[in-house]
Specification:
Elements: H1 5-8, H2 11-30, H3 36-42, H4 47-75, H5 77-96, H6 101-129, H7 132-146, H8 148-164, H9 167-187, H10 202-214, H11 216-246, H12 251-257, H13 259-275, H14 281-304, H15 310-336, H16 343-368, H17 374-393
């Protein structure tokens, strides 16, 4: 059943609020990608140190989610979003005035704590408002709409870089957070009907997380989504250095080239809405997983056989992103659907796994970097293979999280 909130607000009004709320995650990572080489020069830092502003952001993003979801289950989504946007705004201001890379890395780590409230609680709000079957459709629409954020972010970031310097990217983040803070204050009414019922003691939170991990549906679909994200984040963290430093792209060209990935993601998100009318979430996810494995395999083969050019990376990664966009909405609906009372905790635990694997993939890419694309594509292929294994061993044999009567 949909919550009462869904009866008084249209789907369009929810999407207008939830799209930027969930998009704060990709905006936080993608907006300043074209500026990374210039940041290294401006702060007298190494490439590896600048990449740490991404990797440690993902680590902070991961660990902060262990509290964000449970707190929102207990106290409601609204106060946690307000606190998160305030923290994000303050950390963005510190990033603007960071005198060295160490301060910037620390501020990015704190910024992640605010960013995660949007990503996690946006997903939880969808489960508050919609049934599991409706959630799959809405998450597909949200995914297609949200594709605009990572498409525009590097383009806007490169324009800001060219005209105002790298600090302007963080000014834009601060303005974005202020807008979300205002929208939450003015337009969002609490949707968590079960607030006050969930424990926030360390033992209670751990018990809830353990019960989720014991569920094969959650474990399988959450695992598939997290491993896919690891592969996607490998590209996000490694592509700026490989394409700009090693292959000669300008920051502006990179901003446009990055849209290849976003177009793939948008197409996948659009297709999931249509395929879900015909197939179960399990089959939709399986199709997405096979596309991801095929794309990462082709990318690796091209790199290993000496095709070291931008299109040999961008085109397969666009196909990888299509599979990602196809599978993720179905994975999210399937993994969170069975847990309406723990929707925040379920979204948090998935987010923690995604953030941890994002940090790991960024670290691996930086360690394998050798001024060629080989380390980057090796990491992406590894995550593609692990995604396939997770699907075959866990998700394929689990219930898809949507009850038969809802299908």
């Amino acid at each position: 059943m949909s919550s009462p909130a869904n009866k008084v607000r249209s789907q369009l009004s929810w999407l207008l609020y939830l799209t930027p709320l969930v998009a704060i995650g990709p905006i936080s990572t993608d907006l300043y990608l074209p500026a990374m080489p210039q940041m290294a020069t401006g702060l007298s830092a190494t490439v590896a140190e600048i990449q740490m502003t991404l990797s440690l952001f993902m680590l902070g993003f991961a660990f902060s989610q262990l509290l964000t979801g449970p707190l929102s289950d207990r106290f409601g989504r609204r106060p946690i979003i307000l606190a998160g946007m305030t923290l994000y705004f303050a950390a963005s201001v510190v990033c603007i005035y960071a005198p060295n890379v160490e301060v910037l890395i620390a501020a990015r780590f704190v910024q992640a704590f605010g960013s995660c409230t949007g990503t996690v609680l946006g997903r939880a709000i969808i489960r508050d408002v919609y049934s599991p079957k409706e959630s799959l459709r809405v998450m597909g629409i949200l995914g297609a709409a949200m594709a605009v954020a990572p498409a525009l972010a590097p383009i806007i970031g490169s324009w800001l870089l060219e005209h105002f310097g790298w600090q302007s990217n963080f000014v834009a983040m601060a303005i974005f957070a202020a807008g979300l803070l205002g929208a939450t204050l003015l337009a969002y009414e609490e949707t968590n009907q079960y607030r006050g019922q969930s424990s926030i003691t360390p033992f209670g939170i751990a018990r809830n997380f353990w019960s989720l991990l014991q569920n094969k549906t959650f474990r399988g679909y959450g695992g598939v989504m997290s491993l896919m994200f690891g592969g996607l984040f490998a590209f996000i963290s490694g592509a700026p250095v490989v394409l700009i430093n090693d292959m000669g792209m300008t920051p502006k060209q990179f901003g446009y080239a990055f849209s290849v990935m976003v177009v793939g993601y948008a197409v996948g998100s659009i297709l999931v809405g249509q395929l879900s009318k015909i197939y179960s979430a399990k089959i939709v996810v399986g199709i997405g997983v096979c596309i991801v494995l095929a794309a990462s395999t082709v990318m690796a083969l091209l790199a290993y056989t000496g095709y070291h050019n931008a299109w040999a990376i961008l085109v397969p990664n666009g196909v990888f992103s299509l599979g990602f966009g196809l599978a993720v909405p179905a994975c999210m609906a399937a993994s969170i659907g069975p847990f309406p009372r723990l929707a925040g905790s379920a979204a948090s635990l998935i987010g923690f796994c995604q953030g941890t694997l994002g940090f790991l993939s960024g670290w691996v890419v930086s360690k394998l970097y050798d001024h060629s694309p080989v380390g980057l594509v090796t990491t992406i292929f590894g995550f593609g293979l692990l995604t396939f294994i997770m699907y075959i061993t866990q998700a394929r044999t689990a219930h898809d999280g949507i009850s038969p009567e809802e299908k």
